[in-house]
TrEMBL record:
Family classification: Belongs to the iron/ascorbate-dependent oxidoreductase family.
Record carries keyword Metal-binding: yes
Signal peptide start and end residues: none
PANTHER family reported for this sequence: 2-OXOGLUTARATE (2OG) AND FE(II)-DEPENDENT OXYGENASE SUPERFAMILY PROTEIN-RELATED
Residue ranges of domain Fe2OG dioxygenase in the record: 198-303
InterPro entries per UniProt: DIOX_N, IPNS-like_FE2OG_OXY, IPNS-like_sf, Iron_ascorbate_oxido_reductase, Oxoglu/Fe-dep_dioxygenase_dom
UniProt keywords, alphabetically: Iron, Metal-binding, Oxidoreductase
Name this protein carries in UniProt: Clavaminate synthase-like protein
Gene Ontology MF terms in the entry: metal ion binding; oxidoreductase activity
Pfam families assigned to the protein according to its UniProt record, in alphabetical order: 2OG-FeII_Oxy, DIOX_N
Organism in which the protein naturally occurs: Lentinula aciculospora
Origin: domain of life: Eukaryota
Entry keyword annotation includes Ligase: no
Amino acid sequence: MISSSGSPKMIIANRQSDSTFEEIPVIDFADASSSNPVRRMALAEKIRDACVNVGFFYITNHGIPEDIVTDAVEAGKKFFALPISSKMDLDIHKAKNFKGYTALLGENTDPAGRGDLHEGFDIGWEGHQPPRSIGQDILSRNDGGMSGTNIWPDLPGFKDPVLSYYHSVVEFGLKLFPLFALALDLPENFFEDKTTKPAAIMRLLHYPPQSPSTLDNDGNEIGIGAHTDYECFTILWQDTISALQVQNTEGKWIDAVPIPGTFVLNIGDQLARWTNDVFKSTVHRAINKSGQERYSVPLFFGVDYDVLLKPIPSCISSEMPAKYEVVTAGEYVKRRLQETYTHSAKQ
Ligand SMILES: O=C(O)CCC(=O)C(=O)O
Ligand SMILES: [Fe+2]
């Protein structure tokens, strides 16, 4: 195939992949915003290898200040320590846009499971003072079923650090879309007009120590059941307790052991759909057998909710025809969230 520029175009769809990984790669992001295109491309190639084979990697040198992370995590701990009645005032089932508090067992990520042994607090886009480099107030945007404001607890010292973390990680995450585009042999700005209003959902998660009464049918205690993420990619902060596991194509669970100072990035289903599964949205779960409290903070990055998830032409070929029906990102995410919360929805 020849591209419009006349140069031979690589059929990414025919790229070989091997997802029998035994460990999760670590990628240094110091060059993420390098002014040198050769350095950006070198980083994009590492990202491509990790996305094609594993779907997960650690990020070092992300540039997000440690105190921003610590303050948000401490705020989360204070929130989860509130009485259950205060947390239930913010019950996620009361909001139509999946924002607020999820109680223990309120979510069932793996349809075969009985509910996940974690509690969570979800927020979406919201402006922040002082203004940051990305748009201030886009709450009035039309996000279809996902639109609406965040709901906040009446807890001094909570909202500000949580929003600071949200904005720092969103700012960092938006810099990754051009790298993913490069990794797919697309123009660097391919996602620019598709990510104008960060469809970024952040969750504070708390996994209590698990007890034998939370064993599932296989004898495992599940903090979050086996699942793939719904958006393009997830940037996850985890504390020092090893609980996250990633499944390779042989069915083996590989521990994503915490590495201090890093984030874990994983590909989600939106990017798997864009790339016709060339980039792997890999199944993962968390089991907290440590006997201690565990905290983590995933931030899910999607494209704008009105954007169609259409396969990128170089990711389809006669051997790899398009696999997925084309839907908008918003429809897709909402459908997946509805499935996740159905089991605990009040009738
Ligand atoms: O807490 C973790 O380590 C993983 C969380 C996760 O997979 C999710 O929220 O989608
Ligand atoms: Fe996940």
